[in-house]
Specification:
This protein is 20% helix and 35% strand. The chain is α+β, with helices and mostly antiparallel strands. It has a 7-stranded antiparallel β-sheet. Strands 23-22-21-26-20-24 form a 6-stranded mixed β-sheet. It starts with a helix and ends in an 11-residue tail after the last strand.
Amino acid sequence: MSLVTVEEQLKGLQSFITAGPPYCCGTIPLSPDESVLYYGKDVDRLGRVDLSDATEDALEHLAETCDLATFGVNRTDILDETYRKAGKLDAEHFAMKFDAAKSGLLDVIRANLLKDEDEQRSISAELYKLNVYGKDSFFKSHLDTPRGGAMFGSLVIVFPTPHEGGALVLRHNSEEWTFDSAKTISEHAIPSVAYIAFYSDVEHEVTLVKSGYRVTVTYNLYFTAAPSASLNPAVEEHPVVEPALKAEFRRLLEDRMFMPEGGHIMFGLQHQYPVDLDTYDYEWNGRDALQAISAYLKGSDAAVQRVCRELGLKTSLQLVFEDDERDWLTTLIACDRLVHLVDDAMYEEPLRNVLREEYGGKRLSPLDEDEDEDEDEEDLEVVWATQLPTFNRLRATYLTYGNEASLAYTYANLCLLVDVGGFSMRETVDC
């Protein structure tokens, strides 16, 4: 069976690997005590404001108490009001009775953002910051700074303070969505907050606030090890995507004409993931650090990995680099470990050779005919089931920009390599 035919057969899997919108949003009513905010950085400027019935003067005092908000670029905090103009208070400088977990929002996030088996995972919300966007404030497009490998998303609560503008625009994999929280809140007769939860690798921006004050509280969302206890046991779950994906993949594996001699399938993952740059030795445990990310895959990425493992297939995460230093040919190199390369460094060897010789990288695309005769074949022949939205390039892998400078993490694009045995050796495990 030709390679083209294998690729065509794998197209059947693609219809089940649809991530859907990478966010969920809505409103929840506020009780009178949940709208009261206490704030201050010193005893001389302590404040109290009811965000459901705040005066212009009260909101102005809150805004003046805030620090100027910075943003992170390449692990450095930058203050630049042409890119971000807003105020912020760290979590230790404000308090309120509103609590994301007690409000039931975590159950909503599990049910509407996470998929299939991930709906049963335990998650937690860590209070992060309060932000105030006054007239003419904004925040240009950015990613939220990854705070650890277990962080999978962000939750933004928008309080019912009068304002116009300040919509949140989200972008992911060439799609775009707009959440106009001011308009959403104004449609409710009783005091309510608007909420939006989204995956941490979703690019987003706050549009210009035309009038009033946009007051928000942000939480970091994490997967936690503790079992989930808050889901209602009476609710019966009916996962849709994974059973269909598993059935289609099983059908292919049971077809003797599908990759009869075995081979390798590569899934380009649809989300980016934070990688730890500081707490491991690249040479000795870079592989462990990369493979550990498999416990925190999101959405359809997690579904693909689970299905492959349930079918008895070996999987591994890969960083796939694009080396296009030669105009006439682009070479793809896959590494099963994190690598430590400096963008501005001078290397005597081409990038593809550095990755192969120092980090065990495998060439996925052949060199041109002018290369040495024994190097004109791929190290690893793969069939792509889903393409990676963006291949890692040296600068893109290590330049991070977000709401705050990151101490140790940055985002990377990953692939899932799946080893498929020959037909006579295949056994599809039924779990």
